[in-house]
Hints:
There is one protein chain. This protein is an alpha+beta fold. The chain contains 20 helices and twelve strands. The strands form four sheets. Strands 1-2-8-5-3 form a five-stranded mixed beta sheet. The chain has a three-stranded antiparallel beta sheet with strand order 4-12-9. Helix 14 packs across helix 17 (299-311). The radius of gyration is 22 Å and the shape is globular. The termini are far apart. The site of protoporphyrin IX containing FE has 26 residues, from helix 14 and helix 20.
Amino acid sequence: MTSLIQTLQLIANPTQFLDQSAAKYGDTFTMRVLGINSPPVVFFSHPQAISECFAIPAQKLDFKKATHVFKPLFGANSIVLQEGTQHNRQRTLLMPPFHGDRMKSYGKIICEITNNVTKDWRPGKVVSMQHIMPEITLQIILQVVFGISPGQRYQKLKQLLSTLLDDITTPWYSSLFFFPPLQKDLGTWSPWGKYLKRKQEIDNLIYAEISDKRLAKDESLTDILSLLMSARDQDGQAMSDEELKDQLISLLLLGYETTAGVLQWLFYLIHSHPNVKGKILNELGSFEKLEPDEITKLPYLTAVCQETMRLHPIALICTPRMTKESVEINGIKYISGTVLVPCIYLAHHRSETYQEPENFNPERFLARKYSATEYLPFGGGYRGCIGSAFSMYEMKLVLVAILSQFELELVDKCPVKPVRRGITIVPSSGVLMKIKNHQP
Ligand code: HEM
């Protein structure tokens, strides 16, 4: 019974459940999540415990037990479902396109897409950041990851992906993933049949894109698909088409709603803290014209993005890991079969680490540096997010492209709550904003 209540609380109101549990039990607590065999699930928020969790060698952990639910979505070859050497191999292939100079070449596209989506905004118009931000970030990921220019295939893929994501974030659809017996293809009128049909259409479009790129053999292309097609692992092996397709769908689905969620929080927090907005505009105004690269290095803007993800981390937890043998964390032994969960949300809300943790205070990130286990919006260790640098880069450019042209105000001044949307935690209101002024 307790496990049923705890599971329902965790699903219905995850942040409240975590806050209440931490207030009652402290930095480490165990719950039972309803499911087969119901193994003990231990949440950690102390930086030392999180650091010890990240340091556990991969061969002592089973990630698949927690990530297998994503198999029908991402595909069996997805990085999310790999372990050990195969996981290492895929990370080595996937990381370079998201870092360093390669990433910087995407700055221009990011600004162009944002300007294009907002080109019809005029004073008096009301826009919903819940709708606009995924529209912008999906276009960015399609052009940056696939290198597809707007056209028929691009439009079709955009429409299918956004419908797929809308569907799978509804409670009914998401339960299909957690209960395999419900995964019955009874034709396109049945929920699972409909899902499979849509997924197949997406897969076909991705295969068509891969095939076109193979035929074109254009070595000057810098999109991530082209880079992945030419990448070789240490044994000289390239990715197969199926592997490429599974990675691409994973990058698409993990990479656009997440950044869109942070952007919604950014617009909400900046506009409910006029002093913060003033400081960002001051920082921008002190330069004549800024290149994308310079924008992304602005210290106050960076602190605002960091503080937004501290207060409202899009992912509340890191990938859960089940122990295959007993391990010790902070001097306590956990037997084989225990699920360990480094908890991002609680680590970010510890009053020992952050003074007045419920306050939105970007200055804290200018005053001191937090360690990788005190501040971890992108998780950490060998399973940490591979898109972290890219999404930081992207969110700053999208934000500045809009703030430097439009004066916006929140339509509804009431405080919003964090609510679950699929695997992300976003503002409850949809963040409706009115355009007050426009300086193109
Ligand atoms: C603000 C945006 C984002 C947030 C907050 C975020 C957060 C996370 C978190 C918390 C994890 C789990 C890390 C762990 O268990 O330690 C993760 C994993 C991952 N993320 Fe992100 N992410 C974001 C954007 C992206 C983007 C843009 C991409 C790629 C296009 C991406 C691709 C991935 C992948 C592939 C993994 C799995 C890594 C692995 O299993 O080795 N994410 N992300």
